[in-house]
Amino acid sequence: MTDSDSAVTRRRVLQGSAGAGAAAAGIGGFAAGGAAQSASIDDWLGDVSNYDGVRDETGSSEVTVDVGVDANGGAYGFGPAAVRVDPGTTVTFEWVSNTHNVAVESQPDSADWGGVEEINNEGYTDSHTFETAGVYTYFCSPHRAMGMKGAVVVGDADVGGAASGGIDWGNLGVLGAGFALGIGLLMPFVRRALDPSPHNPNTHE
Ligand SMILES: [Cu+2]
């Protein structure tokens, strides 16, 4: 009961976010909708050890998600945990270890993905073509508590976060710091190159 209540809440959050993202995209916006959406997908995958942003697989007509990769303290991960694909992309879920399923947590209103409710073992595969744009979240029933959860983002829904193909200001900051450090380290050589006189600049004049 608590579980389904929180599922409903989560669905509302996701749907609200999708709307905001669409509006932001419509006006060429970038900032406002992103925070809420980032919060929703980061909420869902916040305790997933192998989630490091949404992997961009747009441009591929077929994408594979491994079921039961090493993560979350055992063979309890989806690999990748979150992936972005174009509408119409066929995603194949491929079991690489035992006793997992793919249970749908939330999906866009008009979508009808059934997931794979039954528990399956290594070697099992199931494919689904994702036609409806939006955010799909899912989990493995036996290992949900360990953090075996995933997401498929279809189309250009803005989910914020790191690796969604947008500008990553966090990484730019790191790059900027590295650049500044590099310049700092190079300065003595630059000065030496610019000053052909053989003596030490510290004893100058
Ligand atoms: Cu599992």
Automatic annotation (TrEMBL):
Residues 67-154 form the Blue (type 1) copper domain. GO terms for molecular function: copper ion binding; electron transfer activity. This is Halocyanin-like protein. Its cofactor is Cu cation. The lineage of its organism: Archaea, Methanobacteriati, Methanobacteriota, Stenosarchaea group, Halobacteria. It is found in: Membrane; Periplasm. PANTHER family: PLASTOCYANIN MAJOR ISOFORM, CHLOROPLASTIC-RELATED. One of its GO terms (cellular component) is periplasmic space. Binds 1 copper ion per subunit. It comes from the Archaea. Its main location: membrane. It comes from Halobacterium salinarum (Halobacterium halobium). InterPro entries: Amicyanin/Pseudoazurin, BlueCu_1, BlueCu_1_BS, Cupredoxin, Halocyanin, TAT_signal. Keywords: Copper, Electron transport, Membrane, Metal-binding, Periplasm, Transport. It holds the Pfam family Copper-bind. Cu cation binds at H100, C140, H143, M148.
